[in-house]
Amino acid sequence: MNGKEVIKRFFDNFESYICQLLLSFFVTLLFLQIILREIFSYTLSWGEELARFSFVWFVFFGAVVAARLSAHNRVTFQFKMFSKKTQNYIEGFADLIWLIFNGVMIWKSIFLIKSMMQFTYISPTLGWSMAYVYLIFPIAFTLMSIRIIQVNYLKLIKGVDIRDPDKVDLEEEFEKITGSKDA
Predict the structure, then answer these.
(1) Which of 15, 57, 72, 156 could disulfide-pair with 64, CB 3.0 to 4.6 Å?
(2) Is residue 20 part of a domain?
(3) 99-118, pLDDT tens digit by residue?
């Protein structure tokens, strides 16, 4: 595999890697918290709050991964009587509405963060400005918009059939992401 393919694979799975990292981090942190509390009668005062922030970031990056896989829930049974091409255009129109919603969320979240910078809100145990925690909103909705555009480009322009993630062979997908066959 050459350098160009490695870079392409990294950017195609960027959000997935972030999700894996965040999930591992907050599960490890919670496990450590439980062990310390139950065995040593000691707690990390900041552990629960950091795990909560990590979980929130994980959820939003997970939504971006779902957008990349075209896996967000849709009610599509009423469009089954149309041709596949018409179905794609209807889904494209629905995605346009979704992009408008994302644009509003990006815009409003930036104003919220500016307000939080001006009137500082501090997290109780970590002492972090909550504006930094809330940065996930514009980041996630921007990345989600990029992935929605990417999926529609692949589907409508390139003619690539985006598979339903529920029908995807997980072992095959794992091999694509990791590049190994022994999972």
Answers:
(1) 15
(2) yes
(3) 999 999 999 999 999 999 99
